[in-house]
Specification:
This protein is an alpha+beta fold and about 160 residues long. The chain is built from three helices and seven strands. The C terminus is likely disordered.
Length: about 160
């Protein structure tokens, strides 16, 4: 199968011309209440996000849709939450990046916080890569793979 990249770019340019408004109106949304991801180990996920990335755990409750499952939330600033579920008793297997699955979540932090968090990753021995220019990418057994840059993004691409 041959992909016509020129046609794809032309279509993207047309969509941009028609739909990206020169004076963008205000959004009707206040922010993202939460995004729910999967966790293979609740305590390790809490440790990674609360202790290493400094996202406070705000709540842990039973998942109303699956008895015994935990639903827990981290404060990622500005009234927004990052949430996780675990599913005890279901063997979900290891994370696989698949078409239609979660690709990433980007979370902003200021440059000074980024430097502090990157240092914490290094001190904790969390494997990550620093490219010529950020982002830095990390994949841990406890949480999604993610990348950070001073713009700053935390990129989640795996089940925590």
């Amino acid at each position: 199968m041959t992909i016509d990249y020129a046609s794809i770019e032309a279509r993207r340019a047309e969509l941009r011309r028609r739909h990206v408004l020169p004076h963008r109106p205000s959004s009707s949304a206040r922010g993202l209440h939460h995004v729910a991801l999967l966790s293979s180990d609740v305590e390790r996920t809490i440790t990674f996000y609360q202790e290493l990335l400094e996202f406070p755990l705000t709540e842990i409750i039973e998942n109303r849709d699956y008895k015994g499952s935990s639903h827990f939330f981290f404060d990622i600033g500005n009234g927004n939450l990052l949430a996780f579920f675990d599913f005890p008793g279901l063997d979900l297997g290891p994370y696989q990046e698949v078409l239609g699955g979660l690709h990433h979540i980007a979370i902003s932090v200021d440059p000074a916080t980024w430097e502090r968090l990157r240092g914490k990753l290094e001190m904790a021995g969390v494997p990550h890569q620093i490219r010529a220019a950020p982002p830095s990418t990390s994949r841990t057994p406890t949480a999604p793979a993610w990348s950070c840059s001073p713009t700053i993004s935390v990129r989640c691409t795996a089940r925590g």
